[in-house]
Design brief:
alpha+beta, 416 residues, eight-stranded mixed beta sheet, Rossmann fold, BirA Bifunctional Protein, domain 2, five-stranded mixed beta sheet, binds zinc ion
Amino acid sequence: MKGTRDLLPAETGLWQRVEDEARRILGAYNFREIRTPILEQTALFARSVGADTDIVTKEMYTFEDRTSESLTLRPEATASVVRAYIEHNLFNEGGIHKLYYIGPMFRRERPQKGRYRQFYQIGAEVLGSDHPTIDAEFLEMLVLFLGRLGLREYNLLLNSVGCPKCRAEYLKVLRQALDKVKDKMCGDCQRRAATNPLRVLDCKVETDQPIIESLPHTLDHLCPECRQHFDRVTGELQQRGIPYQIAPRLVRGLDYYTRTTFEMTSNVLGAQNAFLGGGRYDGLSEMLGGPPTPGFGVAIGEDRLILAVEQTASLKPDDRLDIYVAWMGEGALHPASQLARELRRDGLSVEIGYEPMKLKKSLGIASRLGARFTVIIGEGELTAGRFQVKDMSTGQQEEIEPARVAAVVKEKLQKG
Ligand SMILES: [Zn+2]
Ligand SMILES: [Zn+2]
């Protein structure tokens, strides 16, 4: 199907590696996993993402089920996480909730490099505090995560879109500016100038860009509280040694954002080069009928992140085969199977032939599978009570007692 793909074993090793690193770093910052359904009621996204956004008007997979209820394949998961937070009264527990998710999202976008209609996101949300330190610490976590993946070349873009109070003032100024130029803009922009002018800033139509560049900036119209919040976030980023760039047009294409918005971009990804983005959404819980609950989150485009990791060749998948067990003669099957079972129980990855084979053929299979070691068990080895352990990269062979094979191989693997 257009815009979808199969991820084959040659690729999934790297995906697992990236997800393992994500879980590790999220765990280190005390985030815990939440799993929400892929299907939600359509109204959830219309209310949160915004009725006049590209996502809701053009990109959602929406259909009626057999009872004519309108359902949508989730185009993003922040709305789902906040819905779950409200539905299960997590706010009653008080304090701050730190949640993360990993899974597929669905948007009917034009397929292009690194962009798919079923795409994967690694996302995290902090619910229950509007403190600027949350924003700074969260961005620090992302920087550590990218470091673990070996990604160094990227930019952190930062903006503030203000709160409902200063937004109203800004929208007045923006509408006035748009009145003078909207006739020269695309049809969507002309409509949005009236219905939802902030969305004009998301427009990707090439000829509109110079006009959009000339429009007033949210940062110049923040109320004192929002200004202070933003200054505190940037101040803490400086203290933490995290470089950033101010991006006055960064409003992130969804209606629920307040105050901090951010993206990270990488030059290796070409024109549309953002691979993660997010920000603060202090009003989202109330928009969805919950109690006032400030929030901050990120969605990482996993497909694009992995594209960047592949291009820098910085991370290796963790999917090598440790040992191939080569056995000769029916009498060797039982001791060979027993050894394989013990090695696997010890956490080593092991492959074993299912029929007796000549040694040469077994070694051929072992090297085709990329095994680091081959354990050789023939009549001579059984009589001696010691198996041959062959290092496949050096060709060196050692005689080792069966009970010590796992320990010896592990030690050699650790040495690299
Ligand atoms: Zn404000
Ligand atoms: Zn436009």
